Amino acid sequence: MPQSHALLQSYKEVKKNPNSVIKALTQKDIRYLRTNLNRRSKTTDLDSTNKKLDQETALFRKTTKRIETQQSKAVASVASSLGKSVESLSSKHKILKMAVDGLAQFKESAKVSIKSMAQDIKHNLTKIKSVESGLGTLSQSHTSLALQNLVTHNELDSLLRANKSKLDNMAASFYEAISTTDATVTDAASFTPDDGHATLITVFVEGVKSDKSQAAGYLFSGVFRRDGSTTTQVGTTERLVEKEDDAAWHADFTTSDAAIVVQVTGKAATDISWNVYGSAA
Fold first, then answer.
1. DSSP class of residue 194?
2. Which residues contact 236 (CB under 8 A, 6 or more apart)?
3. Is the overall model pTM greater than 0.85, yes or no?
4. 201 pLDDT above the threshold of 70
């Protein structure tokens, strides 16, 4: 048996029965045992250290893997957020483009509307000038008739009386003044044309609030025909001028049996003075 093994066996025996065995050991044997025991202790410590290193290595690898997993998740989250941001920007770009296109269409539509309004205004101004010209010509015609025939006032009066019906139908004028205090539709003036005739009637209506803070003016015309006790409007009213401070105010034509009636509409709790000037031919 080798010496080291024998000594180890002796050491074991010493541990079991130190008093009986230790007396047999020499000083040399004791030194040898101490040396080998120190080596075994160092070997055990090294094994323990290696085991700890293995545990630390395993923990390091586990930690590294966890960090890599977290990094992967973070990168995926950032990529997803960037993707959503890009989609949001794209959507906003589309909305902005739609708004710009809509603005361009509105601008073009506004141009067309303004052009149409300008044409309507020009057309209405032409009609007004035509009406004014017709009234002026009618007045000149009456004056010329008196001068050419050199008739006296009495003779002219007799002539007018004799031809009243014809002259009334050709160019009759009327005027009425009324007041309103509410929004009730009110008859302001009326004119009855001759039976069997067509009549062109032009009316100017002005309305002024009692404190002079608001006003309105209307110029409109219409064509009517009378058949017995019934007068009917031909087509619709031609509204040449319609200006008002309050859109609730209004003036228009209607008919009542054989009469052509001009009606006005005021406003609740508002005192309005109305003047109606009409000419029929």
1. P
2. 222
3. no
4. yes
83 class by beta-carbon count within 10 Å (0-12 exposed, 13-18 middle, 19+ buried): exposed
The amino acid occupying position 159 is: L
Q: 274, 276, 271: which is closest to 182 by C-alpha?
A: 271
Looking at residue 64, its pLDDT comes to 76
Provide Rg for the chain, Cα atoms. 59
CA distance 80 to 78: 5
Q: Which phi and psi angles does 248 have, rounded to 5°?
A: -75, -25
Domain ranges of the chain: 168-280
272: nearest Cα among 206, 207, 216: 207
Burial of 137 (0-12, 13-18, 19+ CB in 10 A): exposed
pLDDT single digits (tens) 238-278 = 999 999 999 999 999 999 999 999 999 999 999 999 999 99
CATH number of 168-280: 2.60.40
Q: Bridge partners of 273?
A: 179, 208
Spell out the residues 6+ positions from residue 80 whose beta carbon is closer than 8 angstroms to its own.
none
Helix (H, G, I), strand (E, B) or coil at 152: coil
> Rounded CA gap, 262 and 185, in Å?
10
CB contact set of 206 (below 8 Å; sequence gap of 6+):
215, 216, 217, 218, 274, 275
DSSP state of 210: T
Please give the residue that has the higher pLDDT: either 13 or 139.
Answer: 13
pLDDT tens, residue by residue, 107-134: 566 566 666 666 766 676 676 666 556 5
* Beta-strand runs (E) in the chain: 172-180, 185-191, 198-209, 215-227, 230-244, 250-256, 259-265, 272-280
